Amino acid sequence: QVQLVESGGGLVQPGGSLRLSCAASGSIFNINAMAWYRQAPGKQRELVATFTSGGTTVYVDSVKGRFTISRDNAKNTVYLQMNGLKPEDTAVYYCNALPHILPWGQGTQVTVSS
Question: Helix, strand, coil shares of the chain as percentages rounded to 5?
């Protein structure tokens, strides 16, 4: 079964940028939609961005214009470029399919704070 490993998180000041990566242990070519999710302390996990095999991208309103999702099927990797980060973006970020049919990875912590 495909395993997911997220990386690229860290501590960044408001307005800063990070690029998250999600490496899959197997092929994601046949998975129609890959997505990034996040879970802030005390909150439910939420869907942040989706990238379909057809190239369609969808974002939650709160990150539109700031985040960009992409995928490289040849490298079995999904990325999330995050610009203009805000304190409310602080969360653990996970990737998975949509729906989330794969085992969850450990996630990567993103902290936005001055």
Answer: 10, 50, 45
